[in-house]
Amino acid sequence: MQQFLPYAWFQGQCVPFEEARISIATHALHYGTGAFGGMRAIPDPQNEDTVLLFRADRHARRLSQSARLLLTELTEETILGAITALLKANKPTQPIYLRPFVYTSDLGIAPRLHNIETDFLIYALPLGDYLSPEGVSCRISSWTRQEDRSLPLRGKISGAYITSSLAKTEAVQSGFDEALLLNSRGKISEASGMNLFLVRDGQLITPGVDQDILEGITRASVIELAKTMDIPVVERPVDKTELMIADEVFLTGTAAKITPIRQIETTTLNSERPVMKALKERLVAITQGLDPAFEHWVSRISLS
Asked: Which of 157, 258, 282, 290 has the fewest CB atoms within 10 Å, i.e. the most exposed one?
C-alpha cells in the first residue's frame, strides 16, 4: 500500500493526510477539470535541517499558468507558500515527490469552467527511482497524443492523462516498461509522462514544442545545461525509425529524472551513453546543491 507523508495541504491549511477528503460529487473527479504539478524535494546533504527543491519557481509558474487555462487564479506565491508550509509540517528525511493539484471543487453536474468553485491541495510521498536507472524498454503506442487544438497541452490538465494511462497500460501488458506516443502527424511526441531526447552524431535532438509535447521543466533544464556544456541542441520533428538508429535515447521528467531507453520494440539500443551520462551527472550535482553555477535553480527550505 502506498505510504504518504503525514500532512497534506487542504482547503488553505496543513491537515493530517487522512482528513483531506473530497466529496464523491466533486466536479473535477467526473470531468477531469484539474491541473497538477510534480516536484521533488531532497534532504540537503550539507544541512540536515534543510530540504532542496529543484526549480521551484518554474514549477509554480507552470501550475499557475495551468490554473489560468482552467479559468481560475492561483498565484505562484500561494503555491510556494503552501509547499513551504507542507515541508515544515512533514519535515521529510528522505527524497519525496510533491503533487500540487488545482481543481474544480464544486459539486455541480454541468461540464463547465465558469461560475464554479475551485480549490488547491498538495500531498507528498517518498519516491526514489520512478523508472529503472538501468534503462527501460518502450513500444510505440497505438494511442495518439492529443493536439493542442483539442486540449491545452501546455498545462498538466488532469483529463488529458487518460491517453497516458491507456498507453502506459498497453505497454506494460504487452511486455514493455513504457510507451512512446506519436502525434497526429505521425511524429514522435513524448512518453506517457516524460519528454524524449536522442543523440546522433554528437547532436542532442528533441521534439519541439510544436510537436504537441508538454513543456517539461526537466526537458528545458537539460537543453539549457547542454548548451553550457557545448553540446549542440536541435529541437525538431523526430521519426520513430530515427530512434532505432540513434546513438543514445533517453527520457526526462520530474519523476523519471534522466532515464535511458535500452530497447524500442524489438530493437536493442546502444548501451554506451556518454552524452546522457554527462548530463545526468551534472543534473544530479545541481539538484543536490553542489554546483555553484546553477545555485539559482535550487531553493533551500529550512525545516526549523
From this structure: 290
